[in-house]
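Lecture notes, structural biology module. Today: joint structure prediction for complexes of two components.
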Amino acid sequence: MNDSLRGRAAPEAIPHNPYARMRMNAIEIIAKKRDGQTLTREEINDFVQGFVRGDVPDYQVAAWLMAVFLRGMSYQETADLTLAIVNSGDRLDLSGIAPFVVDKHSSGGVGDKTTLVVAPIVAACGLPVAKMSGRALGFTGGTLDKLESIRGFRADLTTEEFLAQVREHGIVVSGQSKDLAPADGKLYALRDVTATVDSIPLIAASIMSKKIASGANGIVLDVKVGRGAFMETEERALELAQTMVRIGRSLGRRVTAVLSDMNQPLGLAVGNAVEVREAIDTLNGRGPADFLQHCLTIAGQMVLLAGRAKDEHEARELLLHQLHSGAGLAKFKEMVAAQGGDTAYVDDPDRLPKARIVEPLPAPQSGYIAAIDARQVGLTAALLGAGRQKKGDPVDYAVGIVLAHKVGDYVKSGEPLLTIHANAADKLRQAQLRLREAIRFSDAPPQPYPLIHRILRDTDVA
Amino acid sequence: MNDSLRGRAAPEAIPHNPYARMRMNAIEIIAKKRDGQTLTREEINDFVQGFVRGDVPDYQVAAWLMAVFLRGMSYQETADLTLAIVNSGDRLDLSGIAPFVVDKHSSGGVGDKTTLVVAPIVAACGLPVAKMSGRALGFTGGTLDKLESIRGFRADLTTEEFLAQVREHGIVVSGQSKDLAPADGKLYALRDVTATVDSIPLIAASIMSKKIASGANGIVLDVKVGRGAFMETEERALELAQTMVRIGRSLGRRVTAVLSDMNQPLGLAVGNAVEVREAIDTLNGRGPADFLQHCLTIAGQMVLLAGRAKDEHEARELLLHQLHSGAGLAKFKEMVAAQGGDTAYVDDPDRLPKARIVEPLPAPQSGYIAAIDARQVGLTAALLGAGRQKKGDPVDYAVGIVLAHKVGDYVKSGEPLLTIHANAADKLRQAQLRLREAIRFSDAPPQPYPLIHRILRDTDVA
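The predicted structure, tokenised, for the full assembly:
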């Protein structure tokens, strides 16, 4: 057989077999993207729905994903892909709940317990928050795992329960419904095994499709930048943010992206119970300064998107009032109770799961802390058992790491840098080795990281 | 779930599960090629053997093929891929048959009955020819289908029969053994449906792996250039030729590539029985001039590779002697007989299958023939039934097209341009319409096509 000719022949070969035509169309769509051409909304939608139906096989989608990875997608194509993924399933209709419902999404990080504080203080302003969250994987934690360290907390609400709770309590944080954007899960599973995860249009469409399908009118995207983030450079983070903001605008949503720092962990606690405790402390007005500022920024943008404040200053005042009045904490307890959790855990965080071994890590030298590698800290927390190596693994709520210092602090040799919460001696030792490597010192005070790199509003993009 | 983080996490996620490690390696190999890095021989071999064993699933191979398509491969990587495909199956050992066995391969064309003449005249020189051929697909014909228009001819020899015949008769033309280079068929099937056919390293490795596995010491590659070829430009054809010649050299084979013209059909006949008749006519010294010259070039390079002549002139004299003495025709009959064919068909080509309708197509105007679009002629022959739209379709041996004129000829309005051999009136009409479109006229004599664009020897490449 002449290899060279079989291929050329194919597109002209089977014009009247409807099944073959379908496959031919898939081939044409792959070839078009392979050649760097722009796909139409219809082509993208046909391809995605064909994949979900099983008419377009995974190997064709895999080739297409690689072509998208290497050739990219225009903003319009990315919005069309987002819409196609949304169209693969149900959409939540939140219009009966309030005129404007807000949501937030974090691109993921280490010590990122933001939702636990932001959702209650925003909801306490009277602005309904309907949030679908995720679970820990790799070096990152997951909001649902953290919440589940509160005894009885249910993160697997049905759609009916989800809607009823946001209607009744104005706040809900639960797992992603399988009926929303099912194409996303299928596409992600394939990207994960074909080296096509790290593509801005594919990431943007994945995130935005879930947010669009979840029904919120306004979405604040917390795009992490740095060593402990998927986007290590500000340039890539900005590109992702711009893409998502444009998608939101072209699909009729108000979107603001906040580029926030993830070179070192956010706040001090990294784990599950330890992060819940830190979130409760923050709602009690005793949280770490960086984490509080971060929460006020994200929550402030949510309040602004909904038109509940005229500027950032007013938004901040409104939110600080929810914190200081205890309204935020009360809303958090209301959510915990509504989702079956034991609120005694909120009143007394000492009830949260505790590790058998709690051991400080002394500073090996005196000096300024120049870096705390967020990725290494996240991986170490996962190694201790706080995270997952793969989907479905159990997590240990008790274990984790609590920093005593952050970048820029001066420490003396022997002083505790952090505390390791472990349930096994061998894991403790591995964690000690890893964490010593993760922290760097300098003689002079280091250049501080900005907490917020940039805020991008939908009115900012051309 | 944070989309962005799952992916980053993956490569670090499952270090101790051996199955997962296997998959991780596949992901790393895909990612390396995706990023334009060079794969090692071991990586390429692991990936290909993993695919053949079923350990690397087709979706991973599909993503990898697209990465190869868009990122390319070095000569070394292409040779390593060729070797990996060869290693997926058996190798024929022809060393017991003769010190030097030659083979030829055409990249496929329209009216390309070259093997039917070249194999016997080379074998008649005492140089064993062991050739595995292909079947028609799309716009191209297949040597095996042509030979099967001779009653009884068997193109499906076993490996034992193949070896016995070349040992006994010094000539054999049969189908590709399924035991040789099985990875090629699997890879091709996937390329065909993932828009990754038209990649020079993939084409080169596909062709060369089959040739290497077939055991010949010397290989002449007939790389077609033009409208009726897979490589439409001389630049692409040269790139393919250079790649294949280099692969051959790095795997210890003597290889010469002939870039030959395929803008118009080769010779006059396009079909199965009509091409066999033209080949027999040529062996009888009455073939079309262009086809004869082409055959003498290809055969001459085979004779030169084997060291049976000191230069092209001597090779040509030797081959013309086989033609004029009748030794070539005798060898052809010997092969037909050995493979179960009825040699009465060779003695009297009128016995070959005949179409019910044989109708000339008159010239619509007077003028010089400026172009006869080989691709359109090939597609039209396939439409008449001479070819296949997809693998496994039956072919009609009787139908086809026989040109009366070639590019550069002057014709008068109404004079026959060609004869259509059809078995159905509707197909005849469709063929007439298509063929009228395929032929262009000019008032002035057109620039003639070169028959041979270039000859590339392994001593020519750096």
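Point to remember: The first strand of chain A starts at residue 102 and ends at 106.
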